[in-house]
Amino acid sequence: MPNLWALWGNELLAIVIFVSNQCIALELSCFQSTVYIAAIYASNSYLTRRQLWADLTHLQGCFQGPWLFIGDFNAVLGAHEKRGRRPPPTLSGEDFLNWSNANILNHLPSSGSFFTWTNGRFGNENVALRLDRAVCNEAWINFWRNSSCTALVRHQSDHNPLLLSLIFSTVKHATPFKFFKVWTSHDDCHQLVLDNWAKCVRSQGMSRLQAKLRNLKNAFKVWNRNVFGDVDAHVKFAIDEVKRIQLLIDAEGFFDQLYLQDLEAQLFLSKALNFQEQIWKEKARDQNFICGDRNTAYFHRVSKIRAATKSISFLQDGDNFFTDPLDIEQHIISYFQAIFSMDNNCIQNTLIDETIPLLVSEADNQNLLRLPLMAESKEAIFALNGDGVGVSPNSQSILIGFGFVS
Fold first, then answer.
1. Which of 232, 273, 307, 361 has the fewest beta carbons under 10 Å from its own?
2. Cβ contacts of 279 within 8 Å, gap of 6 or more
């Protein structure tokens, strides 16, 4: 019998809604809403785990809302989550993947150790697996501003403990400016750049370049809001227009004017769908996907997961842990201030000449010191990836710990 337990403080209202040998499910009331968390300790037998997958699917059907499943699933998604001589069992991985896909669940990326379990053996007998993780639905990602999972240091156990960090905030922060490649496919983009770059700027050198870029950035912000607009709204409008015209054709019969309107609406819809796909692909920053069927929903989901997990939820400085957003912010500021505001006292000495041998000839040194040619700079810049991409004081955080004892 596994030993599975969950603890919570008095400030958190929790109700146990399901208990089995492999799972404890809790209903949590927080921030005037209800969320659900299931602590998992799956069986070593894949046949027994099939009952767990059925129970978890049934729970999601009975209790609608944000769901998170966290713990030891005793299964991996594929060979990339195992280090050892033999590949993982196929049936076990398929069951795990089918449960995840059937319920449209997302596997939260974890910081810390990738492999969370090891058998502790030496040499070729050593095996490491990613058995512990956090899995959630899209409603969970939408509810929390930040949701991250960390695999802590393994000590006197064959598993890495998991730390789930959640931050809830209703405050919307200003997003930094980002240039999207899809903008260049719009008819007005080229002229916008020409008009703003031609504006007179009273400065010289890099200051002049910086001022021109700032002006162009501000122009793109206004243009994106007023001209390019919300790509999802444009797609919805285009679909409604195609539907309206096709209903007219069904009701009034086919004639040339409606046929031309249908063609124009179809072209507008295709253009809007292309814009939508490209912009969500850029937001997802998926460099592995090249082309294929339209995968806007996939890119949307990847972008949401990235936004929900990229924030810094805690920092460690020696033996000190910072979890409060204000403490994290102050620690980061102090760290960089200490680096860049430190007095730089340079004292002439012969340490380098005495300890480091002369390995570079005078000709090589002159070649290293010379300024790069324009053609070399252009070649280096054009070789870069063309699709590359360059805590609030009012927020509140929750830390939840789960223990798993073998």
1. 361
2. 180, 182, 231
- CB contact at 8 A, 138 and 308: no
How far is it, in rounded angstroms, from Cα 342 to Cα 345? 9
Q: Which two tokens stand for residue 127?
A: 């095996």
Instruction: Please give the Cα distance from 402 to 158 (Å, whole number).
Output: 16
Three-class SS string for 165-189? EEEECCCCCCCCCCCCHHHHHCCCH
Rounded to 5 degrees, what are φ and ψ at 245?
A: -70, -40
Q: What digits encode the pLDDT tens for the residues 233-279? A: 878 888 888 888 888 888 777 777 887 888 888 888 887 787 777 76
Structure confidence by residue, pLDDT tens digits, 9-26: 888 889 999 999 999 999
Q: From CA 371, how far away is CA 61, in angstroms rounded? A: 65
CA distances from 280 to 91, 142, 302, 343 (A): 34, 17, 9, 46
